[in-house]
């Protein structure tokens, strides 16, 4: 009797394994058969994905991309809000199908997961005091600059501003404090957080700040998916191109980052394959 039970258990295990293999053979087919796209974003990264104060629902630029993907695939959206650290693990264990979660292309990431065409370009720039004589990146040569410890901005500064004296701080607020106190000439970070610092300073009066015009580097964000899913990657790329052509991407940009937002950024990129810089 026990032999029959063992054989049945082995058969069930093999059958389950076979089903799982088949299920992962083509994730696009799985999504369409299921009728749902599980799309992950960050859970607290305004304006990309953050809780709306009135509804408590997660909204933002990346959430709009998730909606566009589900609509383009003709399925319902199951949105999953994730912590920053959980993004790639949740994808790798297939608890989410794709990520539109502020994931910038980097060689180490590209070795683990596939990226779609870019849907957002995030500049890394330098904030200086408004009365600083520094007008260009070249004029930072020999001067102290600040960045958050372990950030991509700090890593980029080493290679893109090699003649500057980089000082890293425990967090971005401490780095900004160093700029406020005149301990450094510039603060290197993502354009969005720097714009927030400048806007908040303007609202309070006192010392004012400005961004140098030319970016130090441009991070390129794509929709992220597991490797070995060419059909899903191609479908996502087609949807992103259509999303751009229909003006949907531009409207979302204007709402969260552009003329209708507090940031007033201008979109000067398009959906296209990510170019390695």
UniProtKB/TrEMBL annotation:
Domain Solute-binding protein family 3/N-terminal: 36-260
Matching InterPro entries: Bact_solute-bind_prot3, Solute-binding_3/MltF_N
GO cellular component: extracellular region; outer membrane-bounded periplasmic space
GO biological process: one example: amino acid transport
Coiled coil (UniProt feature): none
Any matching Pfam family: SBP_bac_3
Signal peptide residue numbers: 1-25
Keyword vocabulary terms for this entry: Signal, Transport
The UniProt record lists the keyword Isomerase: no
Matching PANTHER family: ABC TRANSPORTER GLUTAMINE-BINDING PROTEIN GLNH, AMINO ACID ABC TRANSPORTER PERMEASE
Similarity comment text for this entry: Belongs to the bacterial solute-binding protein 3 family.
UniProt protein name: ABC transporter substrate-binding protein
Protein source organism: Pandoraea faecigallinarum
Source taxonomy: Bacteria, Pseudomonadati, Pseudomonadota, Betaproteobacteria, Burkholderiales
